[in-house]
Amino acid sequence: MTHDLVTALRPLLTAEAAAEAYAAGTEAGDLEQAVWLRLLERLEADGPPHDPGQWLRRAVRAEARRTRRTRRLERPYPAEPADDGGDPEQLALAAARGRALRAAVRRLPGRCPRLMEALLAPEDLTYREIAGELGISQGSLGPERSRCLGCLRRLLPPEVAAR
Fold it and tell me: I need a surface site. Which of 30, 40, 124, 151 has the fewest CB within 10 A?
């Protein structure tokens, strides 16, 4: 019984939904889906409608009106809510590069690990602050930094060092 009703109503529903969708600001498939759901709910609660074609036309128009009302009340976000600054794949790759960099910094010789950590610190320390923290002269910080960066380039995988 239900299968016959669905088969009989499918062409009418497709045509009605296509006619109402544009004015409702929605896709015809979305209207069809909503009406099929209403029909299933109706069949479960009250059985099949007396005049299925008439019921279907009224249901399509009612869904179209509901969709128009909803669209008027809803406001789009200026940006996607989950748009927190990046593609998850890019964030994961950046995190992996950061981990590789930190691991390579820990393997550097001498004072280089402390110097590189100071240079990479989020506080963005000045050369004077870094020299004071490491107990070396500010003038020797530049050459020391160059030597440490050379060692770091040799330790890093090519895909991390290139950045």
Answer: 124
Q: The tokens 């009106």 sit on which residue?
A: 65
Nearest CA-CA partner of 150 in 139, 161, 138: 161
* Measured distance CA(61)–CA(24) in Å, rounded: 9
| pTM > 0.85 | no
Token reading at 157: 């995988």
17 burial via Cβ count (<10 Å: 0-12, 13-18, 19+)? buried
> What number of other Cβ atoms are within 10 A of residue 39's Cβ?
21
Question: Tens digits of per-residue pLDDT, 65-86?
Answer: 999 888 888 777 777 666 566 7
Distance CA 15, CA 28 (A): 9
Residues 6 or more apart whose CB falls under 8 angstroms from that of 161 comprise: 152, 153
Q: What is the maximum alpha-carbon separation in the chain?
A: 94
Q: What is the pLDDT of residues 38-63, one digit of tens each?
A: 998 988 888 888 899 999 999 999 99
**First-to-last C-alpha distance (Å) of the chain:** 66
